[in-house]
Write a structure and sequence with these properties.
Elements lengths: L2 E6 L4 H12 L4 E8 L7 E4 L2 E4 L1 E2 L10 E4 L2 H14 L3 E4 L15 H4 L11 E3 L3 H17 L1 E10 L6 H13 L34 H13 L5 E8 L6 E9 L5 H9 L4 E3 L11 H4 L5 E9 L5 E8 L3 H18 L5
């Protein structure tokens, strides 16, 4: 027996990826429905070899449905998630709305799958921020071995993390550079993104950090270990898909780079590509469409007693969003909602 599954926000980048990945991974489904706002009503979306017409999220009755994957943003989630949960449908939410609620589990299945039992509190499970998700997949096996004290991370985040408007702005600005009179001023981003980098993602906080940077700190602590100190600088770069991170890790115990490489090679969800030669590492272009979190450039940091550096790359629309949500659904089905 399979599940009755809802994908809300099915016409967006993440919603479409959710449908693709559910089909690719052959998630056990008896019935599936694609929901969207009224302006996107009856839009056709693909699910494997089938075509689905979107239905109206606003009038949809969640009664009798098992799992709802939400990719609709915080404001809409605030309205519809309690409605779905109240009808007995478990919500797996991709927005930031519930991530910091202590009663809602924040899950990366390779890292803290056991925490999923907490879904019973509110019938809601939170999906982490895209930049956090890939980082903790790489950190978890190293933390188990040598206990992480501190993480310093700089991100290089693609424009797809800002949605379709971000993709369009990079594309149009890039074209405009070569066609006189077709220059495009920034609207989605605060400065020109084409041929540029912007050290600013989300709003600024009183501390001077951005909300994106704060998210990485708070989510790493909730998912992995509250005792880990984290500091982040998050940067938007002119890449369409794929987030990259330069990660510096300080451990309580010494961890040799060769042992770290071996540990990561055996870790779930991680693919190590680390040769000390031209091209012996992974870039965001190469990770697009893949499930893995790729790790390269593993090396000792000689400036601290027990330090390592590494480079981490992942498809942010997959592991950073849609894939992680589907993996949560798989854990939920295997552990909590077993059928047949």
């Amino acid at each position: 027996m399979g599940y009755r599954v809802v994908v809300a926000g099915a016409t967006g980048n993440v919603g479409r990826e959710m449908l693709n990945i559910l089909a690719e991974r052959e998630f056990p489904i008896d019935e599936i429905v694609a929901l969207a706002s009224r302006k996107s009503l009856s839009t056709e979306v693909s699910f494997g070899d089938k075509t689905l017409k979107t239905k109206d999220l606003d009038t949809f009755d969640f009664e009798g449905w098992d799992i709802a994957l939400f990719a609709i943003g915080s404001e809409a989630t605030k309205k519809y998630a309690p409605k779905a949960a109240g009808a007995g449908c478990v919500v797996i939410d991709n927005s930031s709305l519930y991530r910091y609620d202590p009663a809602v589990p924040l899950i990366v299945p390779e890292v803290n799958a056991d925490a999923i039992e907490g879904y019973r509190n509110k019938m809601i499970i939170a999906n982490p921020n895209c930049s956090t998700a890939q980082m903790v997949v790489a950190l978890k096996p190293l933390h188990d071995r040598a206990r992480i004290k501190r993480v310093v991370v700089s991100t290089y985040q693609s424009v797809s993390g800002a949605g379709k408007d971000g993709l369009d702005e990079l594309w149009n600005q890039t074209k405009g550079m070569y066609v006189p009179g077709q220059e495009v001023d920034p609207s989605k981003f605060t400065k020109q993104i084409a041929f540029n980098v912007i050290p600013h993602i989300d709003d600024f906080l009183d501390s001077g950090e951005t909300k994106e940077e704060w998210k990485m700190v708070a989510e790493t602590k909730k998912i992995l270990d509250t005792s880990i100190k984290v500091t982040a600088t998050c940067v938007r770069v002119p890449v369409f898909v794929g987030h990259s991170e330069a990660v510096n890790i300080e451990f309580e115990d010494f961890l040799d780079e060769d042992e770290a490489r071996d540990i990561l090679r055996e870790a779930p969800g991680v693919m190590v590509i680390d040769k000390r030669e031209d091209g012996g590492y992974i870039t965001p272009v190469e990770c697009v469409g893949d499930y893995a979190t790729f790790v390269s450039r593993i090396r000792q940091d000689s400036t601290v007693e027990n330090g390592l550096n590494l480079w981490c790359v992942s498809d942010n629309l997959r592991k950073g969003a849609a894939l992680n949500a589907v993996q949560i659904a798989e854990v939920l089905g295997n552990r909590c909602l077993k059928k047949g």
